[in-house]
Amino acid sequence: MTYPLIVIPFVVITVVVTLATRRRPRFAARMRASALAALMLLALTAVFDNVMIAVGLFTYPEEHLSGIRIGLAPLEDFAYPLCAAFLIPAVATLLEKKPR
């Protein structure tokens, strides 16, 4: 189960950084936008990962996976777009200059 272990730090960092922005303005609106972006990215990942795996562009060694799949795509593949949808806006928010 190598791939699930690789995903854990990304998820933890995403949660910590996102929660660090909870007192910044428009947190709720940013979370709604991130959730919508995450849904779209997850849908795209489901479609394209399944197609790429089906045509043989890449494979995963079974011993490194959790065993949970969505179609042909391992569940671990869905962590990265989910993290990106929340982490990138959170980092951008933390890098914004605070108004004086």
From TrEMBL:
Pathway: Carotenoid biosynthesis. Pfam families: Lycopene_cyc (PF18916). The chain crosses the membrane at residues 6-23, 35-58, 78-95. GO terms for cellular component: membrane. It is found in: Membrane. One of its GO terms (biological process) is carotenoid biosynthetic process. Residues 10-92 form the Lycopene cyclase domain. Keywords: Carotenoid biosynthesis, Isomerase, Membrane, Transmembrane, Transmembrane helix. It is a multi-pass membrane protein. One of its GO terms (molecular function) is lycopene beta cyclase activity. This is Lycopene cyclase domain-containing protein.
